[in-house]
Structure formats: C-alpha cells, structure tokens
C-alpha cells in the first residue's frame, strides 16, 4: 500500500537523523503519490468571494444547539440571515417528547440550547428563531417547514444545513459484528435517514425560492443551497463500519440530488470539517477519554465549529453560475478557507484533512516514532517544514492511515 511505502522511506531516513535522506524520502513519497493520480492537487487560492449580505435570506440549520451545527448557525447569523435553529437541546425539555435520551457530556455551565443559539444569532445582527424538536421522528421537519417557513417567511428558504447527529452512548469504535444493531440506528437514523427527510421536505420550497428569484430578474444572485455536513469517513475508514457507510451515503446523496436539482437552480454541497473542537470533544479531553476515542489525534490544533460556519457563508454567497458549477462537490472546510482567505477564530488556518501537513503529524510520524530506537523522535525541522500538499482522494481508497487501529 502507498502508506506503507511512505512510512518505510521516512522511517529509514529518520533512524539515521539524516536531513538529506528525509528530503529524498519526502520527494519519493510525493512521486509515489503522483503515480496514483495524474496530478497532485496543490493547496492554491483559486478565487476570492466577498459574501453578499444575508439580510432578507432565510436558513434552517438542524443540530443548531451545539457543535458544528451551532457554529454554522452563528456565522449565518453574523452574515445577517434569519436562522431557524432546530435541535432537541432546549431550556424547556419537558415540553418535548424524545426518542433519544443520550447527550455527550459537556462542561458545566454551558447553555447549549436552541434558545441560546437563537439569542446569539440575534445579538450578532441576524434573527434567530429557536425550534426545539426531536428530529429523529418522522414528519417533524415537514411540519416545521409548513408552519414556519411557508406561513411566516412567505415560502422563502435560501439555505438548508443538515448537521444533526447522534453519538452512541457506548462509544463508536469497534468491530461491527461485536456491536449492537442499535449502533446503525444511532449513527444513521438521525445522521442519514432524517437528512434525507429534511432534504425531501425543504427542496420544494427551495425550488420555489429559485423560481421567484428568476422571475425577479435576479439571475446573478446566489442560488438556494442544501449543505450536508459529512466527514472524512466518507472517503476512508475512520471509526467503524456503520459510520463510514453513513458518511459515504451522505456524500452520494448530495451528488445525486445535484443531478436532479440543477435544472431548478438549487445547489447542493457536502461539507468536510477537519478535526473539530466541539464542546463534546473538548470535554472528552478534560475527562481523559479523548486519546482512546480519537486514536490519539491532537485536538489542540483542531478547528472551531465557527470555522465550518464561515465556509458555509462563503459558499452560500457565491453567484448562481459559480455555485451551480460546483454543486454536488465535497468541500473541505480548510481548503475553502484558503480559497476564500478566511481564518479560524484564533487567527490560524488549520491544514486540510488530506494535506501532508495534517496527515504526517497525526498518522505517519507517530507510528514511525514507535519504531525508532532509544525513544528518538522525528526532528522538529522536519515537523515544522511539512509541505501543504493535498493528496488526491483516490489515495485514501486503499484503506485507513498507517497503524491507525493500533494507536
């Protein structure tokens, strides 16, 4: 496998602590990767778009109370959108029956509810509308869209973001035949079935929104956009079988919807965040369970949820022709940051999840260091000078990163 060839070359060089050998190894690795694809995609800035104001535009975000969904909802609010915040975390949980009673632990004192998200959106200049609901139930999204969007927004819906997801209470890693069948339902009930349901309910409204824009002569205005939050698990083995199947299905859903929706002027996109510092992940690090659950990834260099939000704002602001040309594509948040020149909240710009700058420190180097004698480590001059080269997606089809399951 390509990963083992890269690992072997860099390991040999590192053992001898030789600058020349490591340089040669990295060059060889690049050549090997080039052999898998006719070109290596470079992380270049392709274009710069100035987001149009979200004033007068309407968005629905599922899973808006916490995590990536909350980050996206808040950034849409900052852009001036009216944002409907859907989720089951509410200040009045007794008013809602739910089939799911598990929530990942977070730090005490955090108000991770749809109400707090809506309030923050309004504070930022948008208009936040909280909708406490159990999205795992059939018909919920349909009723919300009928009662809220159709009646109060005049049938206008510009952006749908599907980010709601349920984490299994028993942890996600493991061999699938040893996991309960409920694992599939936890991962793909809310994370796949209800994504399909939300799209099915929202698209007719979005088609009418696109039609209305055309009738008003607003041909250059951004098209309605369906954004599905997925992950690297759609391209390569990540946590378990159910997770990977679900994420690959989300990716395919976006592609196939784009085929059917192109003639109606509605765009779709699949969003790949990187390693995200969600409230749940941050708490796992505090509790000391992060390394086991993540496989030892360094959360300190992860992305904030708002980083994904900034990416969605940029995509939703693209002119119709531009967005329709990339409809159905997988969009990596860090790559969008480079394309549209925005940074994370701390001023940094994390590398793409398919960049050597991310893959080598998180997967290749740790497994190499295990094999080095006398506790030697990869020299800092190597770690600090990794090229920001994007590997083609075909590279990951050969399996998981090296030694991932053994870390």
UniProtKB/TrEMBL annotation:
SUPFAM superfamilies: NAD(P)-binding Rossmann-fold domains. It comes from the Eukaryota. It comes from Pseudo-nitzschia australis. This is Uncharacterized protein. Transmembrane segments: none annotated. PANTHER family: DEHYDROGENASE/REDUCTASE SDR FAMILY MEMBER 1, DEHYDROGENASE_REDUCTASE SDR FAMILY MEMBER 1.
